[in-house]
Design goal:
Keywords: Kinase, Transferase. It comes from Fluviicoccus keumensis. By secondary structure, the protein is an alpha+beta fold. It folds into 5 domains: 13-174, Histidine kinase-like ATPase, C-terminal domain (Heat Shock Protein 90, 2-Layer Sandwich), CATH 3.30.565.10; 181-271, no CATH class; 292-377, no CATH class; 391-499, no CATH class; 516-555, no CATH class. It is 29% helix and 24% strand. The strands form 7 sheets. Strands 5-4-3-6-2-1-7-8 form an 8-stranded mixed sheet. A 5-stranded mixed sheet has the order 9-10-13-11-12, with helices on both faces. A hairpin with a 5-residue loop joins strand 28 (518-523) and strand 29 (529-534). Helix 2 (29-40) crosses helix 7 and helix 8 packs antiparallel against helix 9. It starts with 12 loop residues before the first helix and ends with a helix. The relative contact order is 0.06.
Amino acid sequence: MSQSQQVVLAVNNQRLVRNLRYSFTRKETLIAELMQNARRAGATQVSILYDVPSQILTVEDNGCGIRDFQRMLTVAESGWDEATKAEEHPFGMGFFSALFNACRVEISSLGKQMDFVTADALAFETLEVQEADEYIRGARIRLIGLSMSESQIAGAVKRYAMGFPIPVSYNGQQQSRPHALDQGDFQPCSIGQVHLTRSASYTVYLQGIQVHRSNHYLHFGKAIDTIIHLDNTFRGRMPDRDSLVDEPMAIERIRFCLKELWVRLLTEDKAQMSAQDFTSLYWRLARSWGLSDVFTDVPYLPAASLFCISETPHTVMEDEEYLTHQEQGVSQEQVLNGDVVLCDHLPDDEDDHHWPAATLADLSGWKVVRHIPVGHWSEAHTLSLASLKVSVDFERLSTFRFNGERVWCDVILCDSYTLRSGKHQVEVRNQAVFLESRELLIPSGSVGVEALRQVSTYAEYDDKSSLDDNALQADTKLLSDRVLAEFANLRGEGQADTLAKVLEAGNLAAFSVLKDCAFIVRLDAQLRPNVLELSEQQFQDVNQLVDGLMTASIAQ
């Protein structure tokens, strides 16, 4: 019959303490821990000094002092009073960060002192507490042989002082505490104390130390982050306290509270401010907090919601647009009176077909609306370009086939064309447009190149986010030359310039053997060339013949 075995939880003390060094996220944590100890001791200030040559860090406060030195070196046992334990839940581990980052430690408080090598403490050697030569009313801790640079220490002190509740000095210089509770206008709320600013970003503090900052950093005007000091229903993650326990749930709770505060403020200001001032001040901010529905009945559209078409509409690459922000907002009255026309759903891809509608909007000065909440009054007065019926009227002058590097389509030349949709109409002479019939319509005041990117995105084949500028430039030159030649032909002008451009485009400069040669070239109906080379004498004879013909023509 086998004997039963009983087990009980046990701890390898030396290995546990040795492995504690790996639980701290960063060395700078010890600065925060020493500052926190001063605050918990009731200090009204904490002084931090660092001597670079000796690598000695001194932290001194005017708090209640240390009555039991053993508590500082006892893992998971806090030496604070019961009220502090109940309110702040100290872990009793913070001072150990000092043992892992210094060679020697000196502690002086209330007439007692302890001076020891950290390796001895970590090896569980017995350490002596002695009478001190100097009576320190609070506590003075010196870390000797610190394994941190001066810039690390200075940066840590500056960072940890930002929201710290008591003054902090470093090498005699008072540190800025712009986020501290005594430095701003804070209001109580369900999560602690909040200083609300016109920002979608927020910085969160627990017991004076930053534990979170939102990651979008979106400010409006000169506003800084909203500052939050959490109450002690939140817990910092052991041992650093530089982040929150159950952080996703904690952040959800924080954002819910902030959203409630914004709803209250927006409701109050909506009732007191003019429509223009209210929307101009809060539109982007409310949208960042998902509160845009507060504007559904406000009779004003701010500039932040309006855009102008600033280029010929075209397909767009990643992070590319042909819009610019409107400088001024518009009132509901302007829209209802027809002084301002609103539109949306612009084409931006080569599969889109409503380029005539976009051209009508562009040349008519319509305003593009974006980020409008569902149910907003402007929805009933906004034209969707994707479904807008637009007629294109023109008299065809000529048609030819264009085969470029990225664009292959039929081209229609006209003197001008007219775009019509309901009461809206515009005559166009200087801007081409790609029709739903997949034809490129070019009026006499244009060579059509501005509409090439309505036909193709010109994206690189191996990188759809990059523009193939070489292909675009090649098609631009070819289309420009071709259109100029076609219009010249329609006007009955000669094509000598056209031939010269064609020869130039054919890399004529690469054939040096053709230097000083003369030719007569005739193109047949299929544009096949018949070429006759002339000798120098023949060339002179032809010139004399041409001069004679021109003289006779002038005489007539």
